Amino acid sequence: MSTLQGRVYLATYEGNVLEVRVGPEPRLVPVVMDQPFKDSIDSNVISYLVPADNHRHRGMLLVRHYRSLDHLSLAEQRKMKHMKKMDVIRVETNYRNNQWHLIEVLQVDLARERLVPVEDIGRHRALFVGDLACFCLSTD
């Protein structure tokens, strides 16, 4: 969950963004529908909403934490592993069980109801992603 301008938003596991409205009747209102809803929870991906407040990004970031590369085709998996070797992308490796963890960061564009990939989160910013929480803060 994240708040922005007095409103409360949450992300589904897949990465859709919903607004929590309490009146006149409590309900969840779809804001950004980037991924199809699934009947079962996909344990491969967890999506987080994170406030982004710096000179580059205002509003919210959506962070998708993939626990494996299983959602990619075999060709895409090979490409990701090759790019990691070339240090083109940052893919975390859990050395205990040698699993890949891909992290995707997107800007939530509420006005256009879409997600926009970001190259970086801005200077002097750090993003911490875990199994239970994700947060972004200034390093100053």
Descriptive overview:
Helix content is 9%, strand content 47%. The protein has 140 residues and is mainly beta. It has a domain at 42-138. The strands form three sheets. Strands 5, 6, 7, 8 and 9 form a five-stranded antiparallel beta sheet that branches. Strand 2 and strand 3 (17-21) form a beta hairpin. The protein starts with a strand and ends with a strand. The model has no long low-confidence stretch (mean pLDDT 77).
Topology:
Elements: E1 2-4, E2 7-11, E3 17-21, E4 27-32, E5 45-53, E6 58-66, H1 74-85, E7 91-94, E8 99-109, E9 114-117, E10 125-129, E11 134-138
Antiparallel strand pairs: 1-2, 2-3, 3-4, 5-6, 6-8, 7-8, 8-9, 10-11
InterPro entries: KIB1-4_b-propeller
Organism: Lolium multiflorum
Pfam families: Beta-prop_KIB1-4 (PF03478)
| SSE arrangement, N to C | EEEEEEHEEEEE
Query: Number of helical segments?
Result: 1
The biggest sheet, with number of strands, parallel, antiparallel or mixed sense and barrel status, is: 5 strands, antiparallel
- Report the mean per-residue pLDDT as an integer: 77
Helical proportion, percent range: under 10%
The best one-word shape is globular
Q: What's the end-to-end separation, in Å?
A: 25 Å
Q: Rg to the nearest angstrom?
A: 16 Å
Q: How large is the share of residues in beta strands? A: over 45%
Structural class: mainly beta
Give the total of beta strands.
11
Low-confidence stretches: none
